[in-house]
Design brief:
The chain is mainly alpha-helical and 173 residues long. The protein is built from five helices and no strands. It has a single domain, classed as Cytochrome c oxidase, subunit III, four-helix bundle (Four Helix Bundle (Hemerythrin (Met), subunit A), Up-down Bundle), CATH 1.20.120.
Length: 173
């Protein structure tokens, strides 16, 4: 239950971030949304960041399918793959944030970009820590075909993180 409450509160916060991004984008007084010297990251970079976490969610889903069928090794392998793609995604997102030629003080777009990107890194780190804990429990055989509710609930968070990453990648710049 606590995991679902956390997911709900996280959803409200993400929706508030997305609302502020779109509100500031629509407001765009005196063309200050994105000053001329602020160049957003390429769309390919955003798709790459979203793609890595989507592949990670797919690997997690594959692991979940394994434990549902009673295959503990598939769960462990899925978790390892999912965690590896999360690490790749963290690296890609941090690189994207440090490679831009502007800072959060460079206008509404810049501050919104850093808020969304920073929160994505936070999401990834939470998923990484929870996934490592889940992998440790799976390594000790704590899950079975009939007992794996924790894996399902963490999956909801993992899919949420992937969904948010895809939505942010599709936002107009």
């Amino acid at each position: 239950m606590a995991g679902l409450l956390f997911l709900g509160s996280d959803a409200v916060f993400v929706l508030a971030l997305l609302f502020s991004y779109l509100y500031l984008r629509v407001l765009n007084v005196n063309h200050l949304w994105r000053p001329a010297y602020v160049h957003p990251p390429s769309a390919a970079a955003a798709v790459l960041v979203a793609g890595a976490v989507i592949v990670s969610a797919g690997a997690y889903r594959w692991g979940l399918a394994g434990i549902r069928a009673g295959r503990q090794q598939q769960l462990r392998s899925g978790l390892v793959l999912a965690l590896a793609f999360l690490l790749v995604d963290i690296g890609l997102q941090i690189h994207q944030m440090t490679a831009v030629s502007f800072g959060p003080q460079s206008g509404a777009f810049a501050s919104s970009f850093f808020a969304l990107a920073g929160y994505h890194v936070f999401h990834l780190c939470v998923a990484l820590l929870l996934g490592l804990g889940m992998l440790n429990r799976a390594r000790h055989g704590k899950f079975s075909q009939s007992h794996h509710m924790e894996v399902i609930v963490l999956g909801y968070f993992w899919y949420w993180v992937a969904f948010v990453a895809a939505v942010v990648a599709l936002l107009p710049k």
